[in-house]
Specification:
The protein is an all-alpha fold and about 200 residues long. Helices cover about 75% and strands about 0% of the residues.
Length: about 200
């Protein structure tokens, strides 16, 4: 065997190994014709970034609903109550969509969404939630706005990571929508905070 070929073989082998290790490799490809929408959705390629996004966003959205539910009964400012209702109305269908993606990819749903989100910047701890639940009126409004801004900023980072590293078109589309809506909410919250 010529020396040039011998020098070329290790590079080919290394490239094959590296390609096999990439988290960018699709994990699902085809669905049989006439299959269910869930099976067809599973046939679209996805990668580890997509799975991480769906699990983290599911936990994040659930926490957003929990926070907003507190505001519906404890907030003093009617604009804050309206924003809380908008968060719930936006997040509930997105939670269903994220759950559907996770299921279609054959991935386990988080046993406890709080555990999925724990130790992330912007996570509202159970202690913070309990503290908020004990407040009402203007005291609640002030603490709620500060915590929800932090939580929304975390959501934007989760979504932006997906748009940069994800492969699945549905997950990337949801991430782009999430980033836009949460940036809008941050602007609205800052307006309430300053006004």
């Amino acid at each position: 065997m010529p020396h040039a070929v011998l020098r070329f073989l290790p590079a080919v082998a290394l490239a094959a190994v590296l390609a096999g290790c990439s988290d960018e490799a699709p994990q699902a490809q085809t669905a049989p014709p006439g299959s269910s929408p869930l099976a067809q959705q599973a046939a679209v390629p996805f990668n580890d970034a997509d799975v991480a996004f769906a699990r983290q966003a599911l936990a994040h959205h659930q926490q957003g609903v929990d926070l907003a539910s507190l505001a519906e009964t404890r907030a003093d400012d009617a604009r804050l109550k309206a924003l809380a209702k908008r968060v719930i109305d936006t997040h509930e269908p997105e939670i269903a969509r994220l759950s559907g993606l996770i299921e279609s990819w054959g991935q386990p749903a988080p046993d406890d969404p709080n555990l999925e989100h724990i130790q992330r910047d912007g996570y509202i701890s159970p202690g913070d939630m309990a503290e908020l639940a004990g407040l009402s009126g203007k005291d609640f409004d002030r603490q709620f706005v500060a915590r929800l801004i932090r939580q929304r900023e975390s959501g934007v980072r989760i979504a932006d990571a997906e748009t940069q590293h994800g492969r699945n078109p549905d997950a990337r589309d949801l991430a782009a929508t999430t980033s836009r809506s949460q940036q809008q909410e941050i602007g609205d919250l800052r307006g309430l905070q300053n006004g």
